[in-house]
Amino acid sequence: MDANSSETGLADILERAESTRTAVGKLTDSHPLDLEGGYRVQRLGIDRRSARGERVVGVKMGFTSKAKMAQMGVNDVIWGILTDAMEIPVTSYAVPGVPGATQSDPYDISGLIHPKVEPEIVFRLARRAESADDAADAVDAVAVGYEVLDSRFENYQFTLPDVVADNASAAGYGIGPWHLVTPATAPAISGLPVTLSVDGEVARSGSSAAILGDPWESLRSAARLAAEAGLPLEAGWVVLAGGITEAVPLTSGAVVTVTAETLGTAELRIR
Question: pTM score > 0.90 for this model?
Answer without folding.
Answer: yes
